[in-house]
Amino acid sequence: MFSGLRNLKTVSSILLERMELYCKLMSVEAEIAKARLARRALWAVLGIVFAIFTLGMIHALLIGVFWYSEYRLWAILAILIIDGALAGTGFYLALKPAEQEAFAVSKEQLAKDIEFVRNVRDE
Question: In which domain, by residue range, is 32 found?
């Protein structure tokens, strides 16, 4: 009975100590995730703005070159196909999952601590 109480005291003290570490770890990982998301959003907005300007200029150039020729409709069709391919590629890249899972370190550390508690409890 006393060994069970001793184990309970040990586990509870370790748990309280770990709770503080988890809070600190989660706040650091949240800041990292927030900075990563902000950086991605900034580059996405910048890329969209310049892509719109670039595509507008390319469209004006191609339509201007082919407007008075017999290839006017083919030029417009080619522009539409290219725009569709670029939009599809953009959506694919935007919807691709992130390369690193959020809070991976916290999850790994929590799994190790759960295993430790199970080992102490079984003793």
Answer: 2-122
